Amino acid sequence: MRLTARQREGFLQAGKAAVAAAIAYLVARQVHAPQSFMAPYAAVFMMSETVYRSFAEAVRTVATLVLGVLLAFVTITVIPNVAIALPVAVFVGAAMGQWHRLGDSGIWIGVTALLMLAYGTAGNADYLQYRVIEGVLGAVIGLAVNMFVLPPLHLRAGRQAVEDVAAELEDLLHAVADGLRRDWDDGHARLWQRRARQLEDVVRGAEHARGRGRESTRYNPRWLLRRGRETDDGTQSLGSLYEVARQVQHITEALHAAAAGNAPVAGEWFTGSYAELLDALAAAVSTHHDAETTRASPCSVAEARDRSRSRRRELVERGELAKDGVRLDWSTQATLLLAVERACDAVLDGHS
Q1: For residues 336 and 315, which has the higher predicted lDDT (pLDDT)?
Q2: Is the terminal CB of the chain with fewer CB neighbours within 10 Å at N or C?
């Protein structure tokens, strides 16, 4: 069975967590032999998906450990009865853990206090001191393992997400162009509009993947070694594709309104020529995801934009006459052409 990149990364992080736990346990045994569980526990929690998050997690883990130990010591000092002190410590620890700076780690304040009280060691200052030392030691070891043993780098995921956006856009543009050349109706227009709106989710997913990729480069030694060879995380392409997606949504909305009879698109000559413009735009978008595609030159994209602009200007300034001499309303056509122009401008900006 062939593993996906995410599955391979998961197994790698699991292996690193196991190694970090073993190293932390062995080192902690040299510091204080009995019950050296805190070090491997802290080390495992450092295996985050980015080095930057490991740093943040190290700070939070140490903070919650210290707070939990202090809470256990103070509670048992004030309330010597463990049966009463334990629920009090858990309640106070859970309340303290709500602080947003602690994130998901806040819950471990109460849990740590509970463990110290249940073991009967909460009043032993020396024992608690060793637990804190072990926790700090484990956090440092886990952080070092995640940072220096194949530290996670997620730039490929960001680029793949951008390619997915481009592929979705290209497919939709071709679908609309093919539909305009045939008999299309309100059902087709609704389907195009729904697909265009779904592009928002695809773009948001790409934004998240790109942000995760950029975060994975922070404090990452692996990135420092390869940054000169690999710098494209898809940021510029995604910005261009996002604007194209917005304009495609405008196009599908206008076509849906036209199909509903609110703003008719007159003449096969218009839909045919407009379909050609959409195909040209799709060809330009395809260069963001298909390395085998002949790259659409900026000149060809600019030519499509200029053709659209020229036709729109003609419609706006002169208009067309129907057979009975009555002037037609070309606002829908002008809206469609303007959306293509803006999408072409976005593609050209992405090439610059």
Answers
A1: 336
A2: N
Q: Output the CA torsion sign for 344, 350, 351, 352.
A: positive
Can you list the positions of beta strands (E) in 226-298?
none
> Nearest CA to 172 among 245, 63, 264?
245
Q: pLDDT of 34-65, one tens digit each?
A: 567 788 988 998 888 889 888 988 899 889 99
Domain with CATH 1.20.58.220 in the chain: 155-351
- What six digits make up the tokens of 99? 């602080």
Q: Single out the residue of 180, 226, 232, 169 nearest to residue 202, CA to CA.
A: 169
Please tell me the pTM assigned to this model: 0.68
Q: Where are the alpha helices (DSSP H) in 79-152?
A: 82-96, 107-119, 125-148
Residue whose C-alpha is closest to residue 123's, from 88, 65, 87, 71: 71
Could you name the CATH architecture of 155-351? Up-down Bundle (1.20)
pLDDT, tens digit, for every residue of 239-273? Answer: 888 899 999 999 999 888 888 775 556 566 678 88
- What count of Cα atoms within 13 Å lies in the side-chain half-sphere of residue 343? 30
Name residues whose C-beta falls within 8 Å of residue 193's C-beta, 6 or more positions apart in sequence: 249, 252, 253, 255, 256
Q: Are 20 and 44 in contact (CB under 8 A)?
A: yes
